[in-house]
């Protein structure tokens, strides 16, 4: 847009040099020719055709001296093409220079000077704009990198906090089991022994009540310990530990995308199926790759496990497959086994 505005200013200045011409026909024709050539050069900028047009327009000065008045316009185009020497053919006007008035020559010379000034002003402005744009893009890129790095750091911190929380839950569960659980067990045994040796009918009912209370406390403690333990299971870490124990002839790919809030029962079911599936692959598969994909969706969780060994049929009566089916169906889920020449696939879907 800046170049178009500058060209309009140059055209206006060039037009001032021909207003004193004896006839309007030739100046108008030359003006239109110069505008057409300049427009074509801008459309074809950077091509050989643009250079040819500028050189051809310069040659017109030898035939139409008045065309010299509009050469500042072509000089502007030539300077943008980085080929200012393309206007040198305009020197052919010297053969008929006497056909131009001194006022026209003075205004044209001033127009040449103004054109050079405008070019350096606009080109300098465009270079500055390009530098600022490049700087803005660089800053934006660094800001994106910084934001991504901050996100990775935050995720790493969250993961560390999550692992620390799971570890602390495990420790609490272990402490309750080893200390409180053992003390309650001993108290239950002692209360049972007292009931056996007691011969006072008045103490029989209080002792029975005491044993019942201790039994309820033991049940509550056991459930709490199991809940803490189940919640402390890091599914991805446990699956990776299972994979590490697989025969070295297998390459195992794991893609696990689950939240930390997945139900403990579902985690244990997934782990059981994966362990059994890996064991079956090691025993029966003639492949060398195993793929495990675990996904958590809003309403259900999915597991797909597949190896690349050939398998034409399966025995549904196998204990391993039955155990997997029982685990999944206990949570009202669905499991399917698909044998093929390309491999054996296990697909599990469990509602939340």
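^ structure tokens above, recovered residues below v
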């Amino acid at each position: 847009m800046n170049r178009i505005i500058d060209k309009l200013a140059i055209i206006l200045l060039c037009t001032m040099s021909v207003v004193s011409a004896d006839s309007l026909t030739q100046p108008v024709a030359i003006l239109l020719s110069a505008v057409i050539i300049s427009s074509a050069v801008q459309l074809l900028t950077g091509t050989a055709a643009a250079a040819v047009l500028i050189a051809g327009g310069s040659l017109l000065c030898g035939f139409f001296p008045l065309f010299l008045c509009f050469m500042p316009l072509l000089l502007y185009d030539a300077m943008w093409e980085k080929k200012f020497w393309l206007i040198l053919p305009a020197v052919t006007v010297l053969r008929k220079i006497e056909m131009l008035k001194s006022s026209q020559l003075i205004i044209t010379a001033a127009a040449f000077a103004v054109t050079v000034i405008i070019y350096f002003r606009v080109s300098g402005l465009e270079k500055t704009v390009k530098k600022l744009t490049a700087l803005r893009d660089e800053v934006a890129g660094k800001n994106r990198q910084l934001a991504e790095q901050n996100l990775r750091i935050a995720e790493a911190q969250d993961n560390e906090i999550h692992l620390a929380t799971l570890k602390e839950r495990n420790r609490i569960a272990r402490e309750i089991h080893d200390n409180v659980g053992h003390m309650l067990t001993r108290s239950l045994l002692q209360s049972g022994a007292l009931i056996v040796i007691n011969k006072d009918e008045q103490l029989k009912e209080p002792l029975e009540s005491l044993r019942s209370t201790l039994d309820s406390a033991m049940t509550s403690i056991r459930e709490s310990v199991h809940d803490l333990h189940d919640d402390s299971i890091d599914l991805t870490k446990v699956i990776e530990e299972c994979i590490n124990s697989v025969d070295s002839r297998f390459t195992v790919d794991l893609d696990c995308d689950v939240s930390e809030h997945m139900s403990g029962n579902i985690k244990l079911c997934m782990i059981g199926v994966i362990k059994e599936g890996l064991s079956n692959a090691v025993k029966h598969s003639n492949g060398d790759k195993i793929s495990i994909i675990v996904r958590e969706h809003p309403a259900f969780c999915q597991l797909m496990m597949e190896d690349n060994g050939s398998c034409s049929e399966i025995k549904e009566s196998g204990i391993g497959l039955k155990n997997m089916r029982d685990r999944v169906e206990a949570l009202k889920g669905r499991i399917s086994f698909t044998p093929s020449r390309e491999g054996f696939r296990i697909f599990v879907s469990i509602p939340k």
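The two ends are 62 Å apart (CA to CA).
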